UniProtKB/TrEMBL annotation:
Belongs to the purine/pyrimidine phosphoribosyltransferase family. Catalyzes a salvage reaction resulting in the formation of AMP, that is energically less costly than de novo synthesis. Pfam families: Pribosyltran. Keywords: Cytoplasm, Glycosyltransferase, Purine salvage, Transferase. This is Adenine phosphoribosyltransferase. One of its GO terms (cellular component) is cytoplasm. Its main location: cytoplasm. It comes from Leucobacter triazinivorans. It is an enzyme of class 2 (transferase). GO terms for molecular function: adenine binding; adenine phosphoribosyltransferase activity; AMP binding. It is found in: Cytoplasm. It catalyses: AMP + diphosphate = 5-phospho-alpha-D-ribose 1-diphosphate + adenine. Pathway: Purine metabolism; AMP biosynthesis via salvage pathway; AMP from adenine: step 1/1.
Amino acid sequence: MAPTAPRAELTRAESLIREVPDYPSAGILFRDITPLLADGRAFRETVDALIAPFRGAFDVVAGLEARGFLLASAAAYASGAGLMPIRKAGKLPRPAAHVEYALEYGDAEVEAHADFPRGSRVLLIDDVLATGGTLVAAHTLLGELGYAAAGTAVLFEIAGLGGREAVGDPTLHTVFRS
């Protein structure tokens, strides 16, 4: 396992995540990660911390649309792994496996192509874990494609919303938590 960033570096990185009240709607506290992405050193330390517990245990990094793509791309590059985008329905150019899931305000669907050999070990990465619905659907999608979930890594977990319990992945790793 690769060493993780010193706690001081991660504390600085976390301080770059801005809270934006009432976005995208009233009552929501949005976590804006763009200042973190803009700081090269903090971004590198964060990506290293995101994948550290899983080094050597995955072949592919899957990122969930949209901000999960940014983190997963960096993680795939840093680890030498392949990259698998998990998209919202209707965004992929050729036939894809798909899974529908429930949201607080309706239904949604995620999809992905079967571009990797069956049995590939996939590390799922997303930016924020709230209620966990998208990650649960992504885990189901991996199973339908014949891939093995190597773990789940999330940049920021919002505690108290039940996401960790919903995902039910004992390997779930978060870098920051509220």
